[in-house]
Description:
With 168 residues, the protein is mainly α.
Amino acid sequence: xxxxEVSLKAIQTVKPSLAIDxxxxxxxxxxxxxxxxxxxxxxxxxxxxxxxxHYELAKLGDQKFSIATWRDFLTNPKISExxxxxxxxxxxxxxxxxxxxxxxxxxxxxxSSLSALLKQEQDNSKKGQSTTKYIYSFIPLTEMEKKAPNVxxxxxxxxxxxxxxxxx
Length: 168
């Protein structure tokens, strides 16, 4: 049995519940059934499933969920983040495999593909860098906004903002 056969066998024996394993908040509980469906499909169709559109997923799942439901699933921020991480892993894996191949052959096609993948990897790593954006608002926050983990409520106006306001 060669490496490809072992890898395929390992992918096929992955339990479906291990594909997307994210914590859903109260407003996202409606996604639970579609995540379970995706995990079952993922066990059979990984990694091809990561390239499928919401139309293809609906068809692959025998129309259990509507196209609109699959679109909501794919555009959910937590699911999108999971997809991005999975694709990054696949790209890095392909890069390493191509590096092994480039030593064995003098093919310019492999070198060209490797160059494109390296550029994609570099672009992905730039996207992954977190940037902090400050939005100062004098509008009261909703209860959900107040409870968001990335919100910090300031009791005073920061000096540099206050200075800008006084100039106007």
